[in-house]
């Protein structure tokens, strides 16, 4: 359907019927008010849409989807719009209606004894974390955008974060889903069972599907025991190889209590300390590489601190660790994490940054960083690789800051070239070009380079089975 067809022939009638479903407060038409829903976080994509529709219930979502299916109008499901691959941004043609789930933000139920919480798709991640904490439980999904991202988007993109090592990705935290299918039918799969061996695990089709198979409207999520002991350390390591070795030692010494294990290069600390308020070097002397380690335990003074201290001391004696500091207070722990979070914020102050969200087997992280760093340095003189992230699960954010003094626009024109260079190396290492951000629009064509023809055909068959008209988030993922 063309933009002209919607605008001149059918938009007025469509708008009238949508208003009957969601009310006037559920529609956004003003250009300025629509803009936050049409622009991606990094400002690389700005789409167009005649309407942003914001339903307040599953039934309203179903009616909107059914109406658009009948009218053959494509939909772009959207949560908090904090994604980084333009998966929730409409195209520039203006043919798609944005379906934002932000008004569906209720916690429907919390069963502390079953360790579950049932939430609507528009719930802010931090809201779910707080509800769990009030019930003396833990919801472990944790990422930088948790104050604004919505759980529906987290599930649709299979979000990762800093605690994947211990608790898994978003898909590992889901027991059941409620989904509006592309024809407007509602699948009620809100089961709270740990064991249900009655056929295909349908919920997993929608987790990570980026809204291309249906609209997630609610979910039953797993909760965990709230930790009584939290031990956090910031340590200088000899190199990424030493970091991987230290990770294995910490896992063994703590009885698999390592929750987070983050790798940071010196350049990342320099950026953060230079540009982000509250960031300061935690150790007395500079080092080339660091790790941020956090352990959760079930008992206060349960021995985790001693186990980590002993592990770090042994590693120091063997030359793997150069220095380390264990947090003595909650403020010091927060300062360590502020430094990790500041690395993300600080990069924009250093000019253009070409991003890579990649993963390789944990054992191959050191070799990947070395090979990829050498390759981009050869391709672009003066480039500044910033390789950091969740080394505990093999997910490295291999970001490339522009050479000092370079023209930012000219440098960013090399985005596709440098992406291809890095992704080819990732592929040789048996890795993934998208570890936790998804494919969306930005990586769609690149993804097709690495998926086998059979794998792509299987994905297309699934898409065709659920969405034969191709109206649900078209042009994304596939």
From TrEMBL:
Pfam families the UniProt entry points to: FAD-oxidase_C (PF02913), FAD_binding_4 (PF01565)
Span of domain FAD-binding PCMH-type: 45-226
Matching PROSITE patterns: FAD_PCMH (PS51387)
InterPro entries the UniProt entry points to: FAD-bd_oxidored_4_C (IPR004113), FAD-bd_PCMH (IPR016166), FAD-bd_PCMH-like_sf (IPR036318), FAD-bd_PCMH_sub1 (IPR016167), FAD-bd_PCMH_sub2 (IPR016169), FAD-linked_Oxase-like_C (IPR016164), FAD-oxidored/transferase_4 (IPR051264), Oxid_FAD_bind_N (IPR006094)
UniProt keywords, alphabetically: FAD, Flavoprotein
Keyword match Flavoprotein: yes
Family classification: Belongs to the FAD-binding oxidoreductase/transferase type 4 family.
Stated name of the protein: FAD-binding oxidoreductase
Organism: Aquibaculum arenosum
